[in-house]
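Input record (one chain):
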Amino acid sequence: MTDQDFMRLAIEAAWEGVEKGEMPFGACIVRKGQVITVAHNSAKASMDTTAHAEVQAIREASRRLKALELAGCAIYSTCEPCPMCFTACVWAKLGRIVYACRIEDAERAGIRQVPISSARMNQLSQSGVEIVADVLRDESLKLFEAWRRGDTRPGK
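The corresponding structure, as predicted from the sequence alone:
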């Protein structure tokens, strides 16, 4: 599978979350080409403001792999990670962060963000995590736009 295939799984998870009234974020964690977990935001359902898609995916991947450190894993996210999620990725020792939309895109959709890029956080943390931006950005932008309008998934 390719970066695009894994990102589509994250986008699909985000759509599932939107259909449940959650924010339009999804994440997928992969190791050696195998999907470990896919998650979406669940802050509203869990009444937990930290239940972002990336954090949910990290929690589940750690449980499944029985490891706090997820070295050798990559995370695919529908949006550039916020500072909390980026830090969780660094502390989990994920080797790669791949994202679709940028923080500015989320802000334009009406989602409040702390405007610091993953590149800047990577520089400040000296983590050395590989960052790949804009993978299927247009598809994820459609998700954000639909969420902003209050639409559910196209074709449903």
